[in-house]
Amino acid sequence: MSRVRLYQVAVIAGLVLLVEALCVGGVIDKVTMPPPHRIAVDFFKLLTTKTLYPEIGKSMANVLIAFVLAYVLGIVVGTALHGYKTLRDTLDPLFATYYAIPVFAFYPLFIVMFGLGDGPQVLIGLLLGIVAVIVTTLNGLDRVPNVLRKTARISRLTPLQTALRVTLPFCAPYLLTAAKLALAYAFIGVIGSEFIMARSGMGYEIGFAYTNFDNATMYPLILLILLMSVIMNSALSRWEKVLLARRGQQ
Amino acid sequence: MPVPHVSLSGVTKVFPASAGGQDVHALGPVDVEIGTGEFFAVVGPSGCGKSTLLELIAGLLPVTDGHIEFEGRRIGDEIPDGVGVVFQEDACFPWLTVRDNVTFGLRDTAFDAQVRARRVDAAIAMMGLLEFADSYPAQLSGGMRQRVCIARTLVAQPRLILLDEPFGALDQQTRLLMGDEVLRLWRETGATVFLITHALDEAAMLADRIGVMSARPGRMIDVVETGWPRDRDSRIVEREQFGAITSRLWKTLRDESMKTMGRMTTSA
Fold it and tell me: Which of B52, B86, B95 to mutate to test the interface with A (most CBs of A within 10 A)?
């Protein structure tokens, strides 16, 4: 284990121990938050009893759909936009201010349009993630050396072949950053909208547990979301590291 | 003079003005004929349009006036078949191994897997990179990466190889050795080679004929025949004639380079 990784583990362990001490010592009362060891036990129960598996499965499926749609559409739009400077310049102010728009405010409209099913949740996850992917893709494509584009032309590649074989592979590290952003936004969008107005899913269950003071359900679900998000992001980061190492950039 | 393989007639390039500026007459008119299997080098002062000339022949840029023919066919908007280019900049694909980089040169040709593998291995071996076939470009030196690019160009067996200052980023010793490699490949492949370089000694060592270009807009103001035998290597730099060629090149180029320097000083 590297020294940095050791410090990371030590910081997390230290924080958990601090919270444990605050909970056991009564500084944080039991109604607000059970001690971490209790959350760990409840988390284990959550995984073994399997009662919430359908909710977890539904949320994860929606996160996955929102992520894939935001990622694929974002790359396609970003790649297409890169070839049209005027259109890109026109849209730049929208991209720059996009995250100032509270997408969740449109949730009632989406419900009217798509009903109470999974559609609005996926759409919010998609809308939150897609612009981050577009902007990151454009940023990566801006950095493709001109000589590689010339090489593609000399090899008589079509624009689509150039994108698939040269420019997009070149910006793979950027696309992995885009994937991390899209994943994070998919989690925020889907779980967040389940909180607001849904009848199932992890977000709904957390909200339901919260209103019923059911800490034994709420905290393990929060921990599960946290773990899944961290694990997926870590896997992408590791992949990014491998790609950068191959290019001598780390 | 061998049979013309590439011919340029009145080739002119003018770049349209950017916002608020003036049109830039970068090149021409240039008239020159290059024979089949000839090694033709072009030298000239900075900014005289050498690389533009190469990009026009490669079909990467359209001519403003005049025309270029390769094997009797006019080069238009499309990249002509049978042309390979090695650029000065590192054009290796950093995400691909040496083998995959070289294979890229064969992407769209209809060979079966065995023939492809054989040709790729032959190109890698020709450039002395067999033991690095599975390495990534980041693990190689600048000279080795340039050899990967040459192998990628050679694997397609081009009939015309365009070299745009391919050794510009390399040290002097590596350049001499790479020059030997290029001469060997030129003999073995029988391809026509068109080399752009700013190094007079490199041009004098490698080429059959050397075109000397004027300051911008670049025109061919002299063509020097070296008279070297086809079977030659970097040891020809020891010959008396080598000194005579480089000094003739410098004599022609000096005034043109001064013009460029003057322009740079004025614009500064």
Answer: B95
Residue type, B27: L
- Which pTM value belongs to this model? 0.83
**pLDDT tens digits, one per residue of B30-88:** 999 999 999 999 999 888 899 999 999 999 999 999 999 999 889 887 888 889 999 98
How do residues B92-121 score in pLDDT, each as one tens digit? 999 999 999 999 988 666 678 888 888 899
From A227, A16, A162, select the one nearest B79 (Cα to Cα).
A162
Whole-number pLDDT of residue B252: 86
- What are the extents of the domains in chain B? 4-82+160-172+188-267, 92-157
Determine whether domain B4-82+160-172+188-267 maps to CATH 3.40.50.300.
yes
- The Cα B179–Cα B193 span in angstroms is 12
A169 chain-B contacts, CB cut-off 8 A: 93, 95
- What is the ipTM for the molecules in this complex? 0.86
* Count of beta carbons in the 10 Å neighbourhood of residue B145: 21
Please tell me whether residue A145 adopts helix, strand or coil conformation: coil
